[in-house]
Amino acid sequence: MKILLIVVYTVLMCGVLYVSSDPFYVAHGSEAGIPIFTASVNFKGATAFLSVLMFCFALYKKSWKYLLSMLGCSILLTGLASHTVVLNHKRAVLEDQWFLYPFHRLNYNIADGIGLDWRIESVLFGFQITAKTSDESVYLFTGPAPWKTPFNELLERN
């Protein structure tokens, strides 16, 4: 039974990580030229391996405190690895996706670009993007040092 749980968990986790790397799925269709920022394949592979090891440890330790803490850490690592930032110029939308769900969605004027409508500030582990005309604000996570995305370079160009 434990082996079956490990196999199911591994397949589900690897499926989420694979789909989070697929531009067709992440960009909601075959729109070429959409910048997608996500973790590297090496980071995703290491995360998958470490996550499965933690899940195995939690299952074979036979203690609820180990199971809950290791499963929580495993889900957190999978979330970090599946994190994706999509800048869709055709739809004028910036999406911050976790586990394939857009948690932060920011619409901007397609003619002006994101740089003219929004004030972009660098903060800890990401950017704070605030509308110049209203109080609307979005925090965009870009990650710690080994996972830092080059998203700021794209924002500076737009």
The helix-strand sequence is HHEHHEEEHEEEH
Separation, N- and C-terminal Cα atoms:
53 Å
Shape annotation = elongated
Quaternary form = single chain
Backbone CA Rg: 18 Å
State the helical fraction.
Answer: 40-55%
The amount of beta strand, in percent, is 15-25%
Could you describe the largest sheet, including whether it forms a barrel? 4 strands, antiparallel
Number of domains: 2
Q: Number of helix segments?
A: 6
Number of strand segments? 7
Structural class: alpha+beta
Low-confidence stretches: none
- Give the strand line-up of the largest sheet: 1-2-3-4
Mean pLDDT, to the nearest integer, reads 74
What structural keywords apply?
158 residues, alpha+beta, 7 strands
List the helices and strands and how they pair.
Layout (H helix, E strand, L loop, with lengths): L1 H19 L2 H4 L9 E3 L2 H21 L2 H19 L1 E5 L4 E6 L2 E7 L6 H4 E6 L2 E6 L5 E5 L9 H7 L1
Antiparallel strand pairs: 1-2, 2-3, 3-4, 5-6, 6-7
